[in-house]
Design a protein that fits this description.
Elements (H helix, E strand, L loop, with lengths): L3 H7 L10 E5 L3 E5 L6 E6 L8 E2 L5 E5 L9 E5 L6 E2 L10 E6 L6 E5 L6 E5 L6 E6 L5 E5 L6 E4 L3 E5 L6 E2 L13 E4 L6 E4 L2 E6 L4 E7 L6 E6 L3 E5 L11 E4 L8 E7 L6 E7 L4 E2 L2 E2 L2 E2 L1 H4 L5 E2 L5 E6 L6 E6 L8 E9 L6 E3 L2 E5 L3
Antiparallel strand pairs: 1-2, 1-20, 2-3, 4-5, 5-6, 6-7, 8-9, 9-10, 10-11, 12-13, 13-14, 14-15, 16-17, 17-18, 18-19, 21-33, 22-23, 23-30, 24-29, 24-31, 25-26, 27-28, 31-32, 31-33
Length: 367
């Protein structure tokens, strides 16, 4: 289960500098943003019409562009977070006037809000094929932000403020009708570590989803017309099924901040004390050796409800301490900056098949 070339990529540390956020403007600029100081750096000036921004499960950064400002035609574009360069994976296919995007965390691809009459539409886009499916009409007509954080999807309407959004039905509702919101805000973003939601335009506001109120964090230098923002801090996100050990479910987590060139520390909890296990690391959550993932392990090793969720490109031995924690440290190279890869823990347990597995976890170092 070891691959020397992949392992060498992850080893030998050199310090790396993490970035904070990336944003796009309707005029076409791609910006790097400091959400502490408000400093703004122009990464690239590209095609106008960028009205939204999201990462997807595979860590690609998506937006839309409108090459002809007199034509109501928008194309999906992928942004290079290092250079700001844009590419059109589906050519000149018209997806319509998309005003907001969010990760399809469980469905794959992405969800987006498309301008329509009398109310906005919620659509789903398969980012492998470009196929767009209309989920349905929303209950609002000025939605400019969308996020699918843990705890339920939220949207931001220019007039209504924070909305609850049902990604299965497209229905939206305003749970805080009496809250007076800042005017003209054009994006919503989720912090990948804290799960806090933020909204803004030429500024950044922290959004309290329990009451719909906002608090100003920082004004960006020059008041840029930011229509989409995503944080570029380190990321961990669990996916797939786990199977229980002798003490029940085993939980996996990444220690933040995780910077390329420094140690990646992954800990799983609730193991049987004093046992051994493996940290499985891969570069795909979709295929391993030509087989689709997740791969059912029960027929292969006699477990119950266990799956391989990540490609097993290499593995590392882990030891469980007296408190039931298995912690594995992997020294990384600056070459993995902003590269997403996948981690899963396995441990020897007194259960059928003798093994138990955590969920998979998407891991990304900061940019």
């Amino acid at each position: 289960m070891r691959n020397a070339s992949l392992l060498s990529l992850l080893l030998a540390a050199v310090p790396a500098v993490a970035q904070d956020a990336i944003g796009v403007t309707f005029a076409g600029a791609v910006l790097r943003l400091d959400t502490t100081t408000g400093a703004v750096t122009v990464l690239a000036n590209g095609t106008p019409g960028k009205n939204c921004l999201t990462f997807t499960n595979d860590n690609r950064l998506w937006t839309v562009v409108r090459p002809n400002p007199t034509s109501a035609v928008w194309h999906l574009a992928v942004i290079d977070p290092f250079t700001g360069a844009e590419s059109l994976p589906f050519g000149t296919q018209n997806v319509g006037d998309l005003r907001a995007m969010c990760i399809g965390r469980f469905a794959g691809g992405l969800f987006a809000i498309r301008d329509a009459s009398p109310t906005d539409q919620l659509v789903h886009i398969d980012t492998d094929t470009g196929v767009l499916t209309v989920v349905g009409a929303t209950n609002h007509s000025a939605i400019q932000g969308l996020e699918d954080p843990f705890g339920g999807a939220k949207a931001w309407d220019v007039n209504a403020g924070m909305l609850q959004c049902n990604l299965d039905t497209a229905q939206t509702n305003d749970p805080f009708l009496t809250v007076i919101d800042p005017t003209g805000l054009q994006y919503m973003a989720r912090h990948p570590i804290t799960n806090e939601r933020y909204v803004g335009r030429g500024s950044l506001f922290r959004l309290n989803t329990s009451n719909g109120q906002t608090t100003l964090v920082v004004n960006f230098t020059g008041n840029p017309d930011v229509r989409g923002l995503e944080f570029t801090t380190s990321r961990d996100e669990r996916f797939g099924a786990h199977c229980s050990g002798a003490n029940g479910a085993m939980f996996i987590a990444l220690t933040h901040p995780f910077l390329a060139g420094q140690s990646m520390t992954v800990t799983s909890h609730n193991h049987t004390a004093g046992t051994v296990g493996l940290q499985i690391v891969g570069f795909s959550e979709r295929f391993f050796s030509g087989n689709p993932l997740p791969l059912a392990l029960d027929p292969l090793v006699g477990t119950v409800g266990c799956f391989l969720n990540v490609s097993a490109d290499f593995s590392m031995l882990g030891l469980v301490d007296a408190s039931g924690l298995m912690t594995v440290n992997l020294l990384t190279s600056p070459a993995i900056a902003f590269l997403q890869f996948y981690v899963q823990h396995m441990a020897i347990e007194a259960v059928p098949g003798g093994l138990a597995f955590t969920q998979g976890m998407r891991v990304r170092s900061a940019l």
